[in-house]
């Protein structure tokens, strides 16, 4: 599907496929002392380095999250220089570091898990960037106080449906599980988008095919937004520590898929990188 | 190069259990890859060689513990209760007519304890509110045995069908189904790649899926091989009862299936009408510890079949025109109960071990296995769960029934030993087996190794054969 650009030119999404049976293809993780996980990524010409503790408090970026950066690498329409950015669910700080390297003025690193916000700031420092350009927001998006809306929102929401059998209550779970249908954060984001997004602002969203892309697009259209599919990446569902419970996880997904609310086959699914703007705006100041 | 096929579930095996499971899964909205021959001779496939009687009660044997009878009859009843509706579902999907032929006759003659067996079968039916009507053998259409039949039992709730017709209909539905892909080749191996289960096929193709259903019967051990995945799956030991059957044009009419009770280590003789007017004659049962699907039926197997069929069911069989000879391997476990559902690996499921009741139990297996996929954790305590504990019986505990069974097998139906010598021979065999079960001779060691590998009644003819060959 191609979405008509604001200037009338059709732009087809980039498609790419990551091979099956492998994780962390885009950002391979190597193990550092004390079980820490380390990875490097080249974003818009800047080499960045990410580290997490590897103890489960902060999720090391999966290919789902990194695919959004890959989309922005192939698509220069979204501008970052001088922008005020909100990183929603900042995790290890993958996007916070990336957008700062690409020239963002400031980043508000928001995560419901305070360990993530701390990890994001550590990674900012680790990449030689000024931590004063980062505002720490260890809060829930649903309750965050908005003083001034942001020019650029980046978000890779949790997308797995909840089940009590997962039992864990750590950072990894918070990063991956989004309520009964996996859409919890998507729904909050849609509900608060008007408040969060500055005039001419852009939301760049890594939208999982497990969480009903069509529903989000319909909600956006109804609310006066336009969504452009920048990239479609086909890859394995990143099961990680849910591997032991993947029978339960998949059973929930089968139900959602039977209701046309999830799309996947076997363990293969898609992540669509969407660039969302107000229908009245021109995306990313193009033109 | 052949592409990799992605699916929610790969079903290995294209017999009736595999196809019925695939049919159930696509019906639940899942995408399925079937790996197994869709065309060809189906040599060794139990489903194609089956008589296909829906034997809810007539598989009961008087020597079976009450607990086992309760479990097995309940499961077979559940399958039978839904069978007509299941066939109608396949009919509707395929546009093909699938008929059940109602009722099965069980016939007793002087062989073994047939009268006791008939009582046990009748009791199993009646305690569950189903008819079991004793009748004179003269009332059984198509029965004209060489040895006199004493008694007959009519089981109206049992039935028979043509398994080939059901398989062809299922194959047509699945082949055309948008959520099903069929790899028309034998599976050669399975392994894990990341969280995917990979199945390699003989044609060079492969599938990658979240779930794997192993429904390749006696072929499962070869596909699963040894290694980490096999250890995790921890499938109960699978053996097979090799069976040879004939399809004939008989000079008499059999309107409903006629069978003897199960016999010693075999499954008795049975004649089953086919909708096209042909008659099925089954079946031999010889235990294979390592089944070879390519071995063709031997003349001895065919001779045994004809001998027993003429002796116990209808002498006219000798004038019948031979249409087909079939051979199949019925998958069986040490405890003789099927294995349906999740294995030791949460994503690997088994649908096998149905032995003589595969055709009847196919829809039951399909629903139990599918439940394990769409509703994980369901049926974890089911008596057919692959994770159940199976205890291997000791040879000593088998000696009494085993020795008598061996004598009956040697005599064959209709055969006679001089009066009193049957008991003598049985006690002689009992003593010999006992010596070998504890002795330190080479022969004893061989017999024990054989028994420990396959500790089940059907192993006894193999023991006798092995002990007899050793010098």
Give your account of this protein's structure.
The complex is a heterodimer of chains A (287) and B (471). Chain A has helices spanning 63-74, 94-101, 114-126, 171-176, 184-196, 213-222, 246-258, and strands spanning 3-4, 10-11, 14-17, 30-32, 36-43, 46-52, 84-88, 106-110, 134-137, 150-155, 197-208, 225-236, 264-265, 268-278. Chain A has 287 residues and is of the alpha/beta class. Chain A has a single domain (3-285), classed as Vaccinia Virus protein VP39 (Rossmann fold), CATH 3.40.50. In chain A, strands 3, 7, 8, 9, 10, 11, 12, 13 and 14 form a 9-stranded mixed sheet that branches. In chain A, strands 4-5-6 form a 3-stranded antiparallel sheet. Chain A has a two-stranded antiparallel ribbon with strand order 1-2. The radius of gyration of chain A is 18 Å and the shape is globular. Chain A starts with a strand and ends in a 9-residue tail after the last strand. Chain B is an alpha/beta fold. Chain B has a domain at 395-469. Chain B is built from 14 helices and 19 strands. The model of chain B has no long low-confidence stretch (mean pLDDT 93). The interface between A and B is medium-sized, with 21 and 25 residues.
């Amino acid at each position: 599907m191609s979405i008509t650009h604001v200037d009338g030119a059709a732009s087809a999404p980039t498609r790419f496929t990551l091979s099956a049976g492998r994780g962390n293809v885009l950002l391979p993780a190597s193990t550092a002392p004390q079980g820490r996980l380390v990875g490097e990524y080249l974003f818009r010409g800047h080499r960045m380095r990410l580290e997490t503790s590897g103890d489960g408090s902060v999720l090391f970026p999966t290919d789902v999250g990194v695919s959004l950066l890959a989309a922005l690498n192939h698509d220069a329409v979204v501008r970052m220089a001088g922008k005020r950015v909100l990183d929603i669910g900042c995790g290890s700080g993958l996007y916070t570091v990336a957008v700062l390297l690409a020239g963002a003025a400031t980043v508000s690193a928001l995560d419901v898990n305070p360990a993530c916000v701390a990890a994001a700031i550590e990674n900012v420092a680790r990449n030689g960037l000024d931590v004063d350009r980062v505002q720490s927001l260890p809060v829930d998006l649903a309750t965050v106080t908005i003083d001034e809306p942001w020019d650029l929102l980046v978000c890779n929401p949790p997308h797995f449906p909840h089940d009590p059998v997962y039992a864990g209550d750590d950072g990894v779970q918070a990063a991956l599980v989004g309520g009964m249908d996996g859409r919890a954060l998507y729904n909050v984001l849609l509900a608060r988008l008007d408040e969060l997004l500055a005039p001419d602002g852009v939301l760049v969203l890594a939208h999982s095919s497990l969480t009903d892309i069509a529903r989000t697009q319909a909600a956006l259209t109804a609310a006066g937004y336009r969504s452009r599919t920048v990239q479609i990446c086909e890859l394995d569902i990143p099961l990680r520590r849910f591997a032991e419970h993947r029978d339960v996880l998949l059973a929930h997904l089968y139900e959602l898929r039977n209701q046309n609310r999830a799309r996947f086959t076997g363990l293969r699914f898609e992540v669509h990188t969407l660039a969302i703007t107000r229908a009245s705006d021109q995306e990313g100041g193009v033109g | 190069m052949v592409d990799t096929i992605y699916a929610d579930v790969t079903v290995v095996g294209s017999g009736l259990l595999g196809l019925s499971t695939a049919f159930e899964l696509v019906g639940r909205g899942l995408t399925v890859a079937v790996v197994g021959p869709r065309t060809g001779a189906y040599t060794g496939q139990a489903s194609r060689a089956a008589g296909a009687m829906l034997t809810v009660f007539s598989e009961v044997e008087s020597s079976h513990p009450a607990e086992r009878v309760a479990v097995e009859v309940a499961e077979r009843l559940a399958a039978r209760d839904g069978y007509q509706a299941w066939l109608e579902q396949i009919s509707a999907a395929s546009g093909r007519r699938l008929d059940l032929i109602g009722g099965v006759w069980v016939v007793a003659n002087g062989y073994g304890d047939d009268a006791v067996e008939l009582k046990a079968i009748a009791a199993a039916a009646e305690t569950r509110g189903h008819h079991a009507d004793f009748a004179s053998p003269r009332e059984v259409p198509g029965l004209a045995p060489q040895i006199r039949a004493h008694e007959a039992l009519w089981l109206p709730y049992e039935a028979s069908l043509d398994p080939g017709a059901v398989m062809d209909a299922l194959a047509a539905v699945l082949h055309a189904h948008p959520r099903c892909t069929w790899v028309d080749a034998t599976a050669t191996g399975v392994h894990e790649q990341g969280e995917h289960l990979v199945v390699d096929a003989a044609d060079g193709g492969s599938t990658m899926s979240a779930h794997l259903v192993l429904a390749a019967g006696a072929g499962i051990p070869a596909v699963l091989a040894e290694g980490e995945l096999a250890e995790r799956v921890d499938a109960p030991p699978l053996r097979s009862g090799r069976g040879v059957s004939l399809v004939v044009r008989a000079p008499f009419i059999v309107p409903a299936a006629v069978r003897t009770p199960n016999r010693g280590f075999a499954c008795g003789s049975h004649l089953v009408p086919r909708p096209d007017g042909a008659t099925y004659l089954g079946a031999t049962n010889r235990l294979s510890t390592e089944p070879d699907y390519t071995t063709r039926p031997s003349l001895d197997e065919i001779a045994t079949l004809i001998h027993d069929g003429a002796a116990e069911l209808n002498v006219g069989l000798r004038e019948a025109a031979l249409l087909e000879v079939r051979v199949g391997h019925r998958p069986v476990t040490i405890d003789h109960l099927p294995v349906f559902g999740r294995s030791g690996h949460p994503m690997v499921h088994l649908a096998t071990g149905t032995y003589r009741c595969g055709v009847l139990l196919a829809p039951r297996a399909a629903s139990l296995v599918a439940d394990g996929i769409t509703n994980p954790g369901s049926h974890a305590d089911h008596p057919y769960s692959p994770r159940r504990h199976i205890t291997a019986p000791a040879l000593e505990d088998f000696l009494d029934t085993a020795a008598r069974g061996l004598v009956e097998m040697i005599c064959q139906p209709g055969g006679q030993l001089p009066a009193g010598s049957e008991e003598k021979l049985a006690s002689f065999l009992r003593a010999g087996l006992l010596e070998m079960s504890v002795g330190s001779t080479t022969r004893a060691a061989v017999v024990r190794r054989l028994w420990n590998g396959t500790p089940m009644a059907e192993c006894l003819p193999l023991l006798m054969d092995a002990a007899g060959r050793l010098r």
